[in-house]
Amino acid sequence: MAPDAPEIPLKITRGKTAEFAFLYADEEQVFLPIEAMPVKAPARLTITGHQIPDGWPVQVQCVKAPAELNNDPNGDEPYYKTKVVDANTIEFNRVNAHCWKDYAGGGLVVFNRPVNLTGWRCRAQVRTKAGATGTPLFSWDSDPSQNPDGVAVVDVARACFVLRVDAAAAAALTWSSAVYDLEAIAPDGSVYAVTAISPITVEGEVTV
């Protein structure tokens, strides 16, 4: 888990379903050797036993050919979004390598290690400002016994926390600007910040 949680602004549209996913990873990086590129369009890589979650951001580094496959950390696409094909194959659905040179060996797929979220809980609250007390403007909790306003899910397979607001709940929101933060609770009771205190806004809908 990173020591400094990022600020992540959220926006909800009244009357529309909203869903927000927050990936949760260690600072430790994983380096997996690429074995082959069996398909070029979209690009697929063979990495035996990769254990990368579906949708996880990864970088490709040190591939000599095709060099275009490597991510530029300062470019328009510093990461690829992984689509898991099977236990030994991943796909970059937006990458068309058809016109590139054939894969010539070498290279790594690099990513932050996903946290095993088995037994974890998550919760979030919306308030007018940091430090405000009383009933929150809105709440999420993966423990239904807490009677939250919205649904929170701990997605172990994807190593992420998901916050959902259904269309009816979004239509009933009367506030327009506030702050929230998301917390993760480990099986041992330790509480970690997934986000910093961040802005959350509600906008009106056009189609009603």
Write the CATH architecture name of the largest domain: Sandwich
Query: What do we call the CATH homologous superfamily of the largest domain?
Result: Immunoglobulins
State the CATH topology of the largest domain. Answer: Immunoglobulin-like
Please state roughly what percent of the residues sit in beta strands, choosing from under 5%, 5-15%, 15-25%, 25-35%, 35-45% or over 45%.
35-45%
Counting helices, strands and paired strands, the structural category is mainly beta
Overall pLDDT level: 96
Number of domains: 2
Q: List segments where confidence is low: pLDDT < 50 over at least 5 consecutive residues.
A: none
> Describe the biggest sheet?
9 strands, mixed
Between the first and last Cα atoms, what is the distance in angstroms?
A: 41 Å
CATH class group of the largest domain:
Mainly Beta
Overall 3D shape: elongated
Alpha plus pi helix count = 1
Description:
This protein has one helix and 17 strands. It is mostly beta strands and 208 residues long. It has two domains: 10-24 and 117-203, Immunoglobulin-like, CATH 2.60.40.10; 27-113, Elongation Factor Tu (Ef-tu), domain 3. The strands form three sheets. Strands 1, 2, 11, 12, 13, 14, 15, 16 and 17 form a nine-stranded mixed beta sheet that branches. A hairpin with a 5-residue loop joins strand 15 and strand 16.
What features would you highlight for this structure?
17 strands, Immunoglobulin-like, 2% helix, 1 helix, elongated, 44% strand, mainly beta, single chain, 2 domains, Elongation Factor Tu (Ef-tu), domain 3
